[in-house]
Design brief:
Layout: H1 3-10, H2 15-27, E1 30-31, H3 32-39, H4 43-56, E2 59-64, E3 67-72, H5 74-102, E4 111-116, H6 117-125, E5 135-138, H7 141-144, H8 149-161, E6 166-171, H9 174-180, E7 191-193, E8 202-207, E9 210-215, E10 221-226, H10 228-246
Parallel strand pairs: 5-6, 6-7
Antiparallel strand pairs: 1-3, 2-3, 4-10, 5-8, 8-9, 9-10
Helix pairs in contact: 1-2, 2-4, 3-4
Length: 247
């Protein structure tokens, strides 16, 4: 496949149509039999492809006696493509307002971003530093420290500097009891649940209209989901658990 063939395919040609069109540009006005010899396609295939290109306005057709001749002029291609672009824009302008009326105002489209490896997880977790809202978290801090003590220390310092408050829910462990003693200093309100109630292998953070899922248990990865309804749902779940731990 040549570069010219690829470019024509981007304009809506099939691969075979592009080959035939380029052959006609090179050969000039010719019958299907000559184009068939040039391209290696059977004559009936050439006739079928040329008739299709004629209907779309990319190729011209003429007769000499009983023979049909086909001819390609690049200026025709330019005019047709420009006309199609104008028509598509006009159609788009007409239907977009209709689509906006049909679309439910109660939903927002999700955007999902994947991060891989420890470096990817560090990058994803650092997004919390930009939050304009309090961060609600189901925290697996024992795994978060796998991102490195220097990183986590700097992260907490930057979070405090930017005034980003965080409200984690985590297991009752010696690490979390130590963190709780630093709550006020580190803009954190931490609540713990008994270890007997289960384990958290991944951390989940809700901030703004985003949800960050962070897993460092085995193969580190993170997923950022930007969707208000999903974020609000997990905020509700976090609130239910939070209040139950205060009882």
């Amino acid at each position: 496949m040549t570069a010219f063939t690829e470019r024509l395919m981007k304009l809506g040609f099939s691969e075979k149509e592009a080959v035939v069109y380029l052959a006609l540009l090179e050969l000039g006005q010719q019958p299907a039999s000559v184009v068939a010899r040039k391209t290696g396609f059977p004559r009936p295939t050439i006739l079928f492809l040329c008739e299709g290109l004629v209907k779309r306005g990319f190729v011209r057709k003429s007769r000499r006696g009983r023979a049909q001749f086909f001819y390609a002029d690049p200026s025709d291609l330019k005019k047709i493509i420009e006309t199609e672009m104008v028509q598509r824009q006009e159609t788009l302008d007409e239907i977009l307002p209709l689509f906006n009326e049909v679309r439910s105002p109660l939903t927002s489209p999700p955007r999902v971003t994947f991060f891989e490896g420890i470096d990817g997880c560090r990058k994803a977790y650092s997004l919390l530093l930009e939050s304009k809202t309090e961060v609600l978290e189901f925290a697996a801090h024992e795994d978060l420290v796998k991102m490195g003590e220097p990183f986590m220390k700097k992260f907490v310092e930057q979070r405090v500097k930017h005034g980003v408050h965080i409200r984690p829910i985590c297991r009752n462990t010696s690490l979390h009891r130590m963190f709780k003693n630093l709550d006020k200093k580190q803009l954190r309100k931490l609540r713990m649940f008994p270890q007997s109630q289960g384990e958290l292998y991944s951390s989940i953070d809700m901030f703004e209209n985003k949800v960050l899922l962070l897993n460092l248990y085995h193969d580190p990865f993170a997923i950022l989901i930007e969707n208000k309804e999903f974020a609000d749902t997990l905020r509700t779940i976090h609130g239910l658990v939070w209040r139950s731990l205060a009882a």
